[in-house]
């Protein structure tokens, strides 16, 4: 089996597909491995790169069932004790009802589709401003020049944190989100401390001078009563900053790669920009930004589809695999922006389904259509070599995407 550092190889076709998980080749193209896992062992018991034993779910139907089954829980302190609590887990993503409802409820009204839609014009201006800066150039770096800054500017404005600090946020959130397979544990720890100290100072400022941003609202809610603790303010804000940094950037990045690698689909969208909503859904399904961060713990000894799971077993749902399941999607490996209503799982399912989905969709739509409108000859730079997919357990994305304009 794989060793704890994830050094495992698929040497021959006789070897089980799960041995190829977490290898460098897997990061480059996970889909053939997932296809074999869905066939051979759709509910696979294995060891994850951090040495933790658990289960990986790769079929769509099983994924939906796990995500809506409340025997699978998020709050690991219920199993491992309070020592496992940190500010990075004091939020809705790592809570179960009733805490989950309370924490999600406090920020939900800031992300409704209606409210998010009212940001359209402003997000369009931000997108155009970023592309004004590359106008006249023959090349651009999609991630650095556009896909990364766009969602950061938007979430920074919603939260009311200074955009000048975006470079720091990038280092911290990259480090924290890569933590599960990083060799540099102490540095991750230092980054977590710096991030926490930064937020602490910022909250102090907000307490003295509240505005109409989301952080001010959370702090006022804390001061007004017992709705949330100080630790939870850190937890919710850190989650929103990290989610705003590490996901939408890869929707734009992975989505543009899919489009540019399928010139017929690119042409279709260029000819009819109103297809963009369906195109974004297909980008999310075909090459979704969230890899296997959608994890749960078995909250009790239980049976799931004939498998005996022990209380405390890790259960990881591979969303990108579920979204290529031929039982759910016709021609699953075909990238088709006109696909009929696709119930993909890129934003998860059930009570933890992504809170930021309306915002991410809107940012994606604006980003893709603005790039195509402003640069009709846009393509991947031919001399750039093979794209390098970031190895990681949490998000799936490319380090850099060099474009010719
Ligand atoms: C939860 C995906 C963008 C905030 C989730 C989950 C997924 C996901 C799969 C569920 C995790 C689970 O069930 O374990 C994505 C993708 C995005 C995106 C693919 C971009 C394309 C955003 C943005 C924000 C955000 C922009 C914030 C502004 C959240 C929050 C949760 C969440 C707060 C936790 C919800 C809960 O536990 O109730 N996201 N996300 N996401 N996402 Fe996103």
Explain the layout of strands and helices.
Elements: H1 24-28, H2 31-40, E1 43-47, E2 53-57, H3 60-67, E3 72-73, H4 77-80, H5 99-108, H6 113-117, H7 120-132, E4 139-141, H8 142-147, H9 149-159, H10 166-177, H11 185-208, H12 214-224, H13 230-246, H14 248-260, H15 263-271, H16 276-286, E5 295-298, E6 302-304, E7 307-309, E8 314-317, H17 319-322, H18 357-374, E9 379-380, E10 402-404
Parallel strand pairs: 2-8
Antiparallel strand pairs: 1-2, 3-5, 4-10, 5-8, 6-7, 9-10
Bound molecules: protoporphyrin IX containing FE (HEM).
Protoporphyrin IX containing FE is lined by residues 92-93, 104, 155, 239-240, 243-244, 247-248, 251, 288-290, 294, 346-348, 352, 354-356, 359-360.
Pfam families: p450 (PF00067)
Family: Belongs to the cytochrome P450 family.
Protein name: Cytochrome P450
Note down, in words, how this protein is organized:
- By secondary structure, this protein is of the alpha+beta class.
- 47% of the residues lie in helices and 8% in strands.
- It contains 18 helices and 10 strands.
- It has helices at residues 24-28, 31-40, 60-67, 77-80, 99-108, 113-117, 120-132, 142-147, 149-159, 166-177, 185-208, 214-224, 230-246, 248-260, 263-271, 276-286, 319-322, 357-374, and strands at 43-47, 53-57, 72-73, 139-141, 295-298, 302-304, 307-309, 314-317, 379-380, 402-404.
- The strands form 3 sheets. A 5-stranded mixed β-sheet has the order 1-2-8-5-3, covered by helices on one side. The protein has a 3-stranded antiparallel β-sheet with strand order 4-10-9. A two-stranded antiparallel ribbon has the order 6-7.
- Mean pLDDT is 88; it is low at 1-12.
- Protoporphyrin IX containing FE is lined by residues 92-93, 104, 155, 239-240, 243-244, 247-248, 251, 288-290, 294, 346-348, 352, 354-356, 359-360.
């Amino acid at each position: 089996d794989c060793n704890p550092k994830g050094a495992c190889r698929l040497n021959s076709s006789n070897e089980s597909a799960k041995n190829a998980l977490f290898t460098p080749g897997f990061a480059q193209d996970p889909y053939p491995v997932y296809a074999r896992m869905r066939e051979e062992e759709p509910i696979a018991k294995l060891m994850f790169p951090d040495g933790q034993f658990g289960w990986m779910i790769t079929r769509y139907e099983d994924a939906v069932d796990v995500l809506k089954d409340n025997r699978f829980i998020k709050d690991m302190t219920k199993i491992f004790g309070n020592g496992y609590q940190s500010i990075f887990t004091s939020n809705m993503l790592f809570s179960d009802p009733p805490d989950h409802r309370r924490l999600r409820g406090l920020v939900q009204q800031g992300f409704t589709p209606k409210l998010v839609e009212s940001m359209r014009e402003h997000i369009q201006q931000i997108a155009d401003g970023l592309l004004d800066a590359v106008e006249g150039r023959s090349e651009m770096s999609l991630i650095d020049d556009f896909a990364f800054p766009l969602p950061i500017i938007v979430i920074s404005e919603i939260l009311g944190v200074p955009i000048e600090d975006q470079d720091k946020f990038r280092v911290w959130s990259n480090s924290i989100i890569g933590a599960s397979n990083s060799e540099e544990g102490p540095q991750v720890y230092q980054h977590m401390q710096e991030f926490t100290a930064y937020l602490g100072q910022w909250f102090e400022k907000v307490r003295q001078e509240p505005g109409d941003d989301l952080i001010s609202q959370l702090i006022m809610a804390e001061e007004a009563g017992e709705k949330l603790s100080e630790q939870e303010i850190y937890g919710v804000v850190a989650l929103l900053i990290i989610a705003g940094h590490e996901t939408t950037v890869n929707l734009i990045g992975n989505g543009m790669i899919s489009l540019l690698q399928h010139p017929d689909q690119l042409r279709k969208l260029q000819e009819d920009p109103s297809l963009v909503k369906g195109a974004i859904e297909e980008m999310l399904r075909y090459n979704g930004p969230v890899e296997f961060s959608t994890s749960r713990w078995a909250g009790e000894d239980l049976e799931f589809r004939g498998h005996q799971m022990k209380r405390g077993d890790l259960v990881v749902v591979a969303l990108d695999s579920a979204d290529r399941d031929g039982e759910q999607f016709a021609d699953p490996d075909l990238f088709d922006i006109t696909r009929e209503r696709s119930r993909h799982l890129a934003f998860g399912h059930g009570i933890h389904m992504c809170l930021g989905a309306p915002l991410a969709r809107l940012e994606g739509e604006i980003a893709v259509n603005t790039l195509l409108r402003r640069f009709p000859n846009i393509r991947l730079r031919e001399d750039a070599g093979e794209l390098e997919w970031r190895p990681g357990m949490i998000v799936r994305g490319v380090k850099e995407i060099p474009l010719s304009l």
